């Protein structure tokens, strides 16, 4: 990513809350004390999610929605020092990026502020309560009223906290607004808060003779600096144009683009809700590697770092505010806050995020329950109007509409309040809707994974349908059992019908809990991306091999990169080959099984199973699957070779169990134990099996399908880190960082 620095005399720019100088903005994450009972305290460094540290429990109040993990109440406490000039002459604020939920902030025993919604950031002015010398900040967190979320929320101060130190007059960070009336003109505006509390607006125009435009393929960013009243704040922005119409579809920088999108929840799988920068960047990298060019932050604003990663790595974003409005889906969800807090929380999202070039659309809601009531139109109007007022870039506004009955056309007045209409599982209505409302622009904001081909065809053939967002891009904690396949005799039905413990997560993602792409991910990417991957092969689990297979609405048939099916010798098995090539060939142990034309980017072969080497060919390209012997060796693959000594950085280390020849054994489920020496700690250890209820914070965990994942966190010291993984009967493995 190339960067251009623009320095402007009285005013230059900032918007994404990146650190300017240590004096103005200091990370406030280290050396907190945490307690669940105000008696026993432990030292923690933020971001921190106490729920993920607990046991999976069928009786947990958050239930299937909350991954059967504990919630409750907690206290955080931190001491910090101020010198005399800081206490007397400065404005001191704490900036909380996210606390789940019902946060109350105390400074030296005085209540200084708070915020109920767990997904939006907030400021607390601590100037009146701070003093020279030692100070104590305490934060109470109350996540005890359950259920309050339809997915895993986590509990605690799960995003960063910052200490902001400025003069009595200072730049209001969220007032900073960068707009591009056209690609050659940049307008930067900000408010300076005066010592008496009044505001003064400052602005600057910048001519850009040769703009370098931002896009997912070329995520070019500009950087500038605001300087006013002795305060300095940086801003990062991109220059790009968004246009949309039913006739031309979506245009980015004047060029047609279709959205191969995925929905994501906010958790980082085995790390829980903790929004580490490295984890947030990894999620965006996984999405890009899987071929997505867009993401929907369902159903809440994401972390700032996630959006920064989308800016830097190139991913278009639907930034979503709420799951619902006034009528509840759960007893203690946002419906209890809506009337009092919707305006403040929507402002927090739009003002914080409006300078991110990755964001092309605001979403104000998802499948609101009151959609058949006439007042819903007024509510949608008010939310959409506020988004447009706060964002002069005039990004389109959407919300995700659905119908659980035959009443779809009656939502036309609600749909008309949006610039682009979001369809959840309803894009089959697009042709009739286009005939009825020809100017409507549509996108499918949620879709079933198994409908990948049909949804791709909709977008490819109907310009008024600009994209599809599959539910989901990545497996997530909570909403337990959605997308699962199961066997006859297991707890039956969909995730909302029965409690499905020990299933504690989703299995509808293209990418699993530990970051591995499932076969459907390769298929979807080939449909939407003509460049890149052209040939892929996977094997359908034979029905009855482990049991009679039952699928669910969000599932696909269990299909794996595996040629290990012991006991199935001589019986038919199906092999799927995904390809852009018009014809593909399949070989088993160098014997031609057959050659087939690909239809819908796929060819399926049926053959008697026999161990050995399976090879698919298309054009001059080939891919293979090899029968593996018993697991003998542990192979470790780290995503980096070095960690920053900052107490924040993470290394993600994939564990693979291989046979004596180094071939991954896709059936191995050995018990493994991990240890870390040097200036780092084990942050999480787990696998992709959503029925495995071992704690993710434990040092021992089983592999699943031959793999596991461990996450190592730096502790702040410098030196060599050694990670060791061992298991009975397996050759011990080490990796050094």
State the total count of DSSP E strands: 46
Give the domain tally.
5
Ranges where pLDDT stays below 50 over 5 or more residues in a row are: 1-22
Q: Tell me which CATH architecture of the largest domain applies here.
A: Alpha-Beta Barrel
Structural class: mainly beta
Beta content: 35-45%
**CATH topology (fold) name of the largest domain:** TIM Barrel
The CATH homology group name of the largest domain: Glycosidases
The proportion of residues forming helix, as a percent range, comes to 10-25%
**Distance between the amino and carboxyl termini:** 25 Å
Arrangement of strands in the largest sheet: 21-22-23-24-25-26-27-28
Q: What is the arithmetic mean of pLDDT?
A: 95
Gyration radius from CA atoms, angstroms = 26 Å
User: Can you identify the CATH class of the largest domain?
Assistant: Alpha Beta
Oligomer: single chain
**What is the molecular shape?**
globular
Biggest beta-sheet profile: 8 strands, parallel, barrel
Continuous helix count: 9
Task: Write a brief structural summary.
This protein has nine helices and 46 strands. By secondary structure, the chain is mainly beta. It has an eight-stranded parallel beta barrel with strand order 21-22-23-24-25-26-27-28, surrounded by four helices.
Layout of helices and strands:
Layout (H helix, E strand, L loop, with lengths): L2 E4 L18 E3 L4 E4 L6 E3 L27 E11 L1 H6 L1 E6 L6 E5 L2 E6 L6 E4 L7 E11 L17 E6 L3 E2 L5 E6 L2 E9 L5 E9 L13 E8 L2 E7 L4 E4 L3 E4 L2 E2 L2 E6 L12 H13 L4 E4 L6 H10 L2 E5 L17 H16 L5 E8 L8 H16 L6 E5 L10 H4 L5 E4 L5 H7 L5 E6 L4 H10 L3 E6 L15 E2 L31 H10 L6 E6 L8 E2 L8 E2 L11 E8 L3 E6 L2 E7 L4 E7 L4 E6 L2 E6 L6 E6 L11 E9 L12 E7 L2 E7 L13 E3 L4 E8 L7 E5 L6 E4 L1
Parallel strand pairs: 1-16, 21-22, 21-28, 22-23, 23-24, 24-25, 25-26, 26-27, 27-28
Antiparallel strand pairs: 2-11, 3-4, 3-5, 5-10, 6-9, 6-11, 7-8, 7-10, 12-14, 13-14, 14-15, 16-17, 18-19, 19-20, 29-31, 30-32, 30-33, 33-36, 34-35, 34-37, 37-38, 39-40, 40-44, 41-43, 41-45, 42-44, 45-46
Helix pairs in contact: 2-3, 4-5
């Amino acid at each position: 990513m190339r960067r251009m620095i623009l320095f402007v005399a009285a005013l230059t720019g900032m918007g994404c809350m990146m650190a300017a100088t240590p004096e103005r903005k200091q990370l406030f994450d280290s050396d907190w004390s945490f307690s669940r009972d105000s008696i026993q305290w432990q030292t923690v460094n933020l971001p921190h999610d106490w729920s993920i540290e607990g046991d999976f429990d069928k009786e947990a109040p958050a239930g299937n929605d909350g991954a059967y993990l504990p919630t409750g109440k907690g206290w955080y406490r931190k001491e910090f020092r101020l010198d005399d000039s800081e206490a007397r002459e400065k404005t001191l604020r704490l900036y909380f990026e996210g606390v789940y939920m019902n946060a109350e902030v105390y400074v030296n025993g005085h209540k200084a502020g708070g915020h109920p919604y767990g997904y939006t950031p907030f400021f607390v002015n601590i100037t009146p309560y701070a003093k020279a010398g030692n100070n104590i900040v305490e934060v109470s967190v109350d996540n005890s009223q359950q259920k309050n979320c339809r997915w895993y929320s986590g509990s605690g101060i799960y995003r960063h906290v910052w200490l902001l130190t400025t003069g009595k007059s200072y730049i209001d960070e969220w007032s900073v607004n960068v707009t591009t009336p056209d690609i050659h003109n940049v307008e930067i505006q900000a408010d300076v808060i005066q010592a008496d509390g009044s505001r003064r607006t400052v602005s600057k125009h910048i001519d850009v003779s040769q703009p370098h435009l931002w896009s997912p393929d070329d995520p070019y960013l500009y950087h500038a600096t605001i300087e006013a009243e002795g305060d300095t704040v940086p801003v990062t922005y991109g220059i790009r144009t968004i246009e949309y119409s039913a006739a031309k579809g979506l245009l980015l920088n004047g060029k047609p683009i279709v959205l191969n999108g995925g929905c994501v929840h906010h958790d980082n799988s085995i790390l829980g809700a903790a929004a580490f920068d490295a984890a947030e960047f990894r999620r965006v990298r996984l999405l890009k590697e899987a071929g997505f060019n867009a993401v929907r932050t369902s159903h809440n604003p994401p972390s700032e770092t996630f959006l920064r990663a989308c800016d830097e790595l190139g991913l278009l974003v639907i930034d979503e505010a709420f799951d619902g409005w006034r009528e509840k889906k759960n007893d203690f969800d946002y419906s209890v806050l809506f009337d009092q807090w919707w305006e403040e929380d929507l402002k927090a999202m739009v003002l914080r995020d409006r300078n991110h070039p990755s964001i092309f659309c605001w979403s104000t809601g998802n499948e609101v329950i009151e959609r058949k009531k006439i007042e819903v139109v007024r509510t949608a109007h008010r939310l959409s109007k506020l988004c447009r007022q706060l964002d002069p870039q005039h990004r389109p506004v959407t919300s995700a509409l659905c119908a659980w009955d035959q009443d779809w056309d009656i939502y036309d007045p609600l749909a008309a309040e949006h610039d682009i209409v979001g369809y959840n599982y309803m894009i089959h209505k697009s042709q009739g809707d286009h005939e009825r409302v020809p100017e409507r622009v549509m996108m499918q904001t949620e879709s079933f994974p198994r409908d990948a081909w049909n949804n791709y065809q909709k977008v490819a053939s109907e310009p008024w349908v600009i994209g599809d967002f599959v539910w989901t891009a990545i497996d997530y904690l909570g909403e337990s059992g959605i997308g699962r396949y199961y066997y006859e005799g297991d707890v039956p039905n969909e995730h909302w019908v029965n409690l499905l413990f020990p299933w504690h997560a989703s299995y509808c993602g293209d990418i699993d809990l530990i970051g591995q792409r499932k076969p459907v991910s390769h298929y979807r990417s080939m449909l939407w991306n003509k460049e890149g991957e052209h040939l892929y092969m996977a094997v359908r689990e034979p029905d009855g091999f482990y049991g009679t297979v039952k699928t669910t609405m969000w599932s696909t048939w269990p299909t794996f990169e595996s040629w290990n099916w012991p006991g199935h010798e001589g019986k038919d098995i199906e092999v799927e080959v995904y390809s852009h090539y018009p014809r593909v060939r399949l070989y088993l142990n160098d014997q031609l099984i057959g050659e087939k034309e690909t239809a819908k980017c796929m060819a399926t072969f049926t053959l008697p199973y026999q161990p050995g080497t399976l090879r698919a060919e298309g054009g001059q390209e080939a891919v293979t699957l090899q029968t593996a012997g018993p697991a003998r060796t542990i192979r470790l693959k780290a995503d980096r070779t070095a960690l920053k000594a900052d107490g924040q950085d993470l290394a993600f280390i994939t564990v693979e169990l291989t046979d004596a020849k180094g071939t991954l054994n896709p059936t191995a489920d050995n018990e493994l134990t991990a240890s870390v020496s040097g200036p780092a700690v084990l942050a999480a250890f787990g696998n992709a099996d959503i029925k495995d209820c071992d704690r993710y914070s434990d040092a021992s965990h089983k592999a699943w399908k031959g793999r596991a994942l461990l996450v190592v966190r730096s502790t702040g010291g410098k030196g060599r880190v050694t990670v060791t993984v061992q298991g009975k009967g397996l050759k011990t493995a080490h990796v050094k960082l």
